[in-house]
Amino acid sequence: MYFPQYRPRRLRASETIRRMVRETTLSPDNFIYPMFVTHGKSVRKEISSMPGNYQQSIDNLVKDCEEVHGLGIPAVILFGIPEHKDELGTEAYSDEGIVQHAIKAIKNKLPDLMVITDVCMCEYTSHGHCGVIRNGQVQNDATLELLAKEALSHAKAGADMVAPSDMMDGRVGAIREALDDGGFENTPIMAYAAKYASGFYGPFREAAESTPQFGDRRSYQMDPSNSREALREVELDIEEGADIVMVKPALSYLDIISRVKQEFDLPVAAYNVSGEYSMVKAAAKLGWIDGERVMMEVLTSIRRAGADMILTYHAKEAAKLLDK
Ligand code: PBG
Fold first, then answer.
1. What is the full per-residue pLDDT of the chain (324 aa) written as tens digits?
2. Ligand 1, pocket-test mutation among 53, 85, 116, 204, most atoms within 8 A of CB
3. What's the alpha-carbon Rg for the chain, to the nearest Å?
4. Residue numbers of the domain that contains 141
5. In a domain, 13, yes or no
6. DSSP assignment of 297-321, as one string?
7. Residue nearest to atom 14 of ligand 1 (CA)
8. Is residue 81 part of a domain?
9. What's the total number of domains in the chain?
10. Which residues are marked as active site?
11. Is 147 within 8 Å of 155 (Cβ atoms)?
């Protein structure tokens, strides 16, 4: 049936009918809010390239988590800014580390808020790489041990889920084994499975103070040109025991999200990363786009591509709009 019998505009005539035929839904249930925790008291320092996001000390972080929880957002993911960085990133797996303390404080106040932790070395190492360095190279197998220790110490502190973001080979298996041996066989792993070496992480590196001091991350993060390789990476992480698989970044990789969703039956997460957030904020500030409208369009498109959950700095703002 074609025009004039068939008229697609009939189903767009009012908001009511548009609601009835809408294929993709967006809800605070879909969001995971990333947060940055730092040492000290009463610290709340805005990240200049990510307006509305802060480095916060634990007292303020917990208050912010109360707001997140109140908005119906089920989960946060924590990134830590250590007091001291060193070659081996020791604060990452110290039971007295900033993230370990933050987990306890949040769970104490808000037992129902899911606390996910980013498991990586780059915020904690003096060189800013995601693993151990020898002869100027990031060592894969030596790093696995540290990542496993880090994940285990997060779980011991009360983390509900761990999310390795380093892209070392074999890390999901190493972490699964360490968790199981430590009695945390029920702690799920959300693997940053297809994580690309992306320019969109720029603002995050200011937020987490994790810029590599030499070279870049292309020897461990994926080449933006590849998609079949992403499926292989996801498959490996699933084989090793991932419970949720993530694609990162989101917007330039909607095709990857879509393929991963079609090929595998695990829940799919997508990380709407810092640069994607900052671009929307910057253009809105200049008056070039309607920031709220573009935010909702971006988040909807990530869901439409197939993401079950979205890690996004927009989470609070979007949840407030959805509540209206
Ligand atoms: C740590 C990590 C990064 C991000 C999440 N975990 C930075 C990186 O890999 O350089 C990026 C998040 C963002 O840009 O919002 N490895």
1. 999 999 999 999 999 999 999 999 999 999 999 999 999 999 999 999 999 999 999 999 999 999 999 999 999 999 999 999 999 999 999 999 999 999 999 999 999 999 999 999 999 999 999 999 999 999 999 999 999 999 999 999 999 999 999 999 999 999 999 999 999 999 999 999 999 999 999 999 989 989 999 999 999 999 999 999 999 999 999 999 999 999 999 999 999 999 999 999 999 999 999 999 999 999 999 999 999 999 999 999 999 999 999 999 999 999 999 998
2. 204
3. 20
4. 24-215+226-322
5. no
6. HHHHHHHHHT-SEEEETTHHHHHHH
7. 201
8. yes
9. 1
10. 195, 248
11. no
